[in-house]
């Protein structure tokens, strides 16, 4: 009975493994070439896009079989992500 409880407790708490997470931050600001060169119309909305991407770095000690089965989405590593931008820049 004690052994069964120990196994259940072990399964509840996943083993923590430290790995390096590489994060890529990029932005896009599309340039629009319109026939109207007098300025930006009020109807035309300018926008830009910020992308946050990432992946785990490969550990040289793992084999190819282990690398294929541990692929996870980047968003699964976070509960929330807050990005604060400086309004003056």
Structure description:
The structure is a single chain. This protein has a domain at 18-29 and 47-79. The protein contains two helices and two strands. It has helices at 2-12, 64-69, and strands at 21-28, 49-56. It is elongated, with a radius of gyration of 23 Å. The mean pLDDT is 77.
Task: Describe the secondary structure blueprint for this structure.
Layout: H1 2-12, E1 21-28, E2 49-56, H2 64-69
Major sheet attributes: 2 strands, antiparallel
Note the beta-strand portion. Answer: 15-25%
**Helix vs. strand class:** alpha+beta
By DSSP, the count of extended strands is 2
Separate helix tally:
2
What is the 3D form? elongated
**pLDDT average, as an integer?**
77
Radius of gyration based on Cα positions: 23 Å
Q: Give the low-confidence spans.
A: none
Strands of the biggest beta sheet: in what spatial order?
Answer: 1-2
End-to-end separation in angstroms reads 63 Å
Fraction of residues in helix? 10-25%
H/E topology pattern: HEEH
